[in-house]
């Protein structure tokens, strides 16, 4: 689960991290009052969406004013006007895709005198199963771009969970970033605060880009991007309360209510599979036969008829779906349960696109019998390759 920048900064402030004073604006009428509560003389007006690259983004609507979702203002009135121009309009960045995201929240904060921009992040390193500190002197840029063009400017340090964060981690980061004097002590303290927040709140990612050195030599968190481990949210009611459902895909949101592992993609063939590995293989073989998957959907090993029905309804709600491939290998999951769920869903929502079903494993004969006797226009497949070939042919003609 992701949260907005202003929410991330409020959380980091609780841990003592240096962040700018700011106000969130949900309604254009509140913009002037919010800006007036800050001292100035420079105000920064930021669109709040769950995507990076806001400063380099552009709005679809002509009435949104100058390009970019991060703007500077030199008066309360100008800050309020910029907030009004952005609210309700669609911001397109390299991370949103061409559809963009509607801006429903604006964050107005005090400006900062910037001397240097740095990059700092804490991540879960899957390779080492440890928390990793990633830092670079090239702050304010996309870290992917830095990694590709100048990888030597990125330092990666893993933290042993047996010891946790130690001051030498902070000193090593500080020296690699060219910090000196009191800045080294500030970095040691800041990284300790960030590590505590990361561990205690079960974060998956904490990215500060940029972390700035101000003209007075002090460090400040100028931007913050935070993501949490969805499997740990049951422990954090305070974090759950920060969830902005308007920023999430409606189909993914609906799937989460039924404990379905669903991720929307851009293709035309909807997939319903049991098991993450088989789901990945299904998507790969669809691409092999010349089409694109419309989703990743793992119904899990213990899915019920109702769960399968909801999964099918979510797939068919995607207007991009031109065909559906059901690929079930029944181990824990029974093929007859899948068959009953598919039939129930088709009867409820109708079947407007080709449907290929491949069943194998527990109760496979009963599952096939249920499908065959349902009267549905279903294309049967003998194996995964056969199923992928048939659904691609049915969709492509």
From TrEMBL:
GO terms for cellular component: cytosol; succinate-CoA ligase complex. It is an enzyme of class 6 (ligase). The keyword Magnesium applies. ATP binds at residues 46, 53-55, 109, 112, 117. GO terms for molecular function: ATP binding; magnesium ion binding; malate-CoA ligase activity; succinate-CoA ligase (ADP-forming) activity. Substrate binds at residues 274, 331-333. Signal peptide: none annotated. PROSITE patterns: ATP_GRASP (PS50975), SUCCINYL_COA_LIG_3 (PS01217). It comes from the Bacteria. GO terms for biological process: succinyl-CoA metabolic process; tricarboxylic acid cycle. Its cofactor is Mg(2+). The keyword Nucleotide-binding applies. Residues 9-239 form the ATP-grasp domain. Its EC number is 6.2.1.5. Binds 1 Mg(2+) ion per subunit. PANTHER family: SUCCINATE--COA LIGASE [GDP-FORMING] SUBUNIT BETA, MITOCHONDRIAL, SUCCINYL-COA SYNTHETASE BETA CHAIN. Belongs to the succinate/malate CoA ligase beta subunit family. Heterotetramer of two alpha and two beta subunits. This is Succinate--CoA ligase [ADP-forming] subunit beta. It comes from Salipiger pallidus. The gene is sucC.
């Amino acid at each position: 689960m992701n949260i907005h920048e202003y929410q991330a900064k409020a959380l980091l402030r609780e841990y003592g991290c240096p962040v700018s004073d700011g106000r969130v604006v949900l309604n254009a009428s509140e913009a002037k009052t919010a800006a007036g509560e800050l001292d100035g003389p420079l105000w920064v007006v930021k669109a709040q969406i769950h995507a990076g690259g806001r400063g380099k983004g552009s709005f679809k609507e002509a009435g949104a004013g100058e390009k970019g979702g991060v703007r500077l203002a030199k008066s309360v009135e100008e800050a309020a006007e910029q907030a009004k121009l952005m609210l309700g309009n669609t911001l397109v960045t390299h991370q949103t895709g061409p559809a963009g995201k509607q801006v429903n929240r604006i964050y107005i904060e005090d400006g900062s005198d910037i001397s240097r921009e740095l990059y700092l992040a804490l991540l879960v390193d899957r390779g080492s199963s440890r928390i990793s500190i990633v830092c670079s002197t090239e702050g304010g840029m996309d870290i992917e771009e830095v990694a590709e063009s100048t990888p030597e400017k990125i330092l990666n340090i893993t933290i042993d969970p047996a010891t946790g964060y130690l001051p030498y981690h902070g000193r090593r980061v500080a020296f690699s970033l060219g910090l000196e004097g009191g800045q080294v002590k500030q970095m040691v303290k800041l990284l300790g605060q960030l590590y505590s927040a990361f561990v205690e709140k079960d974060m998956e990612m904490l990215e500060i880009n940029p972390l700035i050195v101000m003209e007075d030599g002090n460090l400040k968190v100028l931007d913050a991007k935070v993501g949490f481990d969805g499997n740990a949210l049951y422990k954090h009611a305070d974090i759950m309360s920060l969830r902005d459902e308007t920023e999430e895909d409606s189909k993914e949101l609906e799937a989460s209510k039924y404990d379905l592992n669903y991720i929307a993609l851009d293709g035309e063939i909807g997939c319903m599979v049991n098991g993450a590995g088989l789901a990945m293989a299904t998507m790969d073989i669809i691409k092999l036969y010349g089409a694109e998957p419309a989703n990743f959907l793992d119904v899990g090993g213990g899915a019920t008829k109702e769960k399968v029905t909801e999964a099918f309804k979510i797939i068919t709600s995607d207007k991009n779906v031109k065909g559906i491939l059901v690929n079930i290998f029944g181990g824990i999951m029974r093929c007859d349960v899948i068959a009953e769920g598919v039939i129930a869903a088709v009867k409820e929502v109708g079947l407007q696109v080709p449907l290929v079903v491949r069943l194998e494993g527990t109760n496979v004969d009963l599952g096939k019998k249920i499908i065959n006797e349902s009267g549905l226009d279903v294309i049967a497949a003998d194996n995964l390759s056969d199923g992928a070939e048939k659904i691609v042919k049915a969709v492509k003609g």
